[in-house]
Amino acid sequence: AVADKLASVHVARPGVGGKISFVDKSFKFQVMAFRELLGLAQSPDQFCYLRAIGPNPRKDRAHFWRDFGSIAEHTGFAFP
To answer: Among 37, 49, 74, 80, which residue has the fewest nearby CB atoms (within 10 Å)?
Structure first.
């Protein structure tokens, strides 16, 4: 299931105001279940960036249609 897939996420460190900077490394790299990412993304105090989801989350880039195709199939989700 999509909820159990592992996602590679950059999570902004506290106090940076949601600005993830790769120069300053103002984020923490985390691998978490997609369901955890959805919970994190709903928090008004947390800022994150989905980097990847797939067999090798450190190297595979996120590709919505490939990685989340089952969401569209089961829900009718589509971009406007």
So the answer is: 80
48 by DSSP, 3-state: which?
strand
The alpha helices in 1-80, defined as continuous H runs, are 34-41, 64-67, 69-75
List the chain pLDDT tens, one digit each, 80 residues: 777 878 888 888 887 777 778 888 888 888 888 889 888 888 888 888 877 666 676 677 767 677 777 766 766 666 65
pTM of the model: 0.66
Greatest CA separation for the chain:
40
